[in-house]
Amino acid sequence: MNKIAISDLLNPPTAGPVTSNLDSINNQLVTICSKFPTAKENVDGSYQIQLHNIVSFLSTLTQSTNLTSKDCSNIQLTYELSSMLGKVLKDMVLLNGTEEVEKKKVKEEEELETNSKYVFNVITQDMMIPEKNKPHRGHRLPKEKVNRLEHWYLAHIQKPYLDSKNLKVLMEETKLSKVQIKNWISNRRRKEKLLSISPDIVEIINTQSCQ
């Protein structure tokens, strides 16, 4: 299949068979259309560039002074078809990208849910062993830094997991390291889990473990 030369796109002919140019363009459009059934999974970016070049060529071709009414009609029809195909391909690329983002988001949420269940199980096992419930005090962070971390945690209590953006902001505001911030948030989530478990349930668990 013959494609339109770049030189012709940049310098459209002022004379010559318009029909030949339109036939070449229409052949290219037919080829692009034939790829549509699988375009969603694998949209070829070269087709978008090709369609853009075709539309540009047709726009400049209308400036020719030796066009018949039939030529103008055919050019207009081909222009509209090329523009429509370009829009459809663009929408398919956007849709494909949106679906990939949604799939990634769902996967991350499932991983968070799995991790939360794991943390709950570990905490429950720890509570069944009294020795593990003894407080251990290490190096304390300055009160103003703790207050800032606590403020962030409460603001994101529905999903208290750090992303790179939030981590960067907290590092700048508290002057703490990544490890210090991550450890504090992790410990705060653990504390929240402990607080959410009723003392009665803890007593039942400990009683059953001793039987």
Automatic annotation (TrEMBL):
GO process terms (BP):
regulation of DNA-templated transcription
Q: Which InterPro entries match?
A: HD, Homeodomain-like_sf, KN_HD
GO cellular-component terms in the record? nucleus
Q: A Pfam family matched by this chain, by name?
A: Homeobox_KN
Alphabetized UniProt keyword annotations: DNA-binding, Homeobox, Nucleus
Q: Which PROSITE patterns match?
A: HOMEOBOX_2
Show which residues constitute the signal peptide: none
> What broad class describes the main subcellular location of this protein?
nucleus
Every Homeobox domain range: 132-195
According to the UniProt entry, the coiled-coil residues are none
> Where does the record place it?
Nucleus
Q: Which residues bind DNA?
A: 134-196
GO function terms (MF aspect): DNA binding
* Protein name, entry field: Homeobox domain-containing protein
